[in-house]
Amino acid sequence: MKVISQQQLKPALLAGIGAMLCISALASLEQMSSHLLWLMAPFGATMVILFALPDSPLAQPRNIVCGHLLTSLMGLIILHSVGVSPLSLGLAVGAGIALMMLTHTVHPPAGANPLVIMLTAQEWDFLYSPVASGLVLILSFGWLYHNMLCRRPYPQKWF
Question: pTM for this one?
Answer without folding.
Answer: 0.94
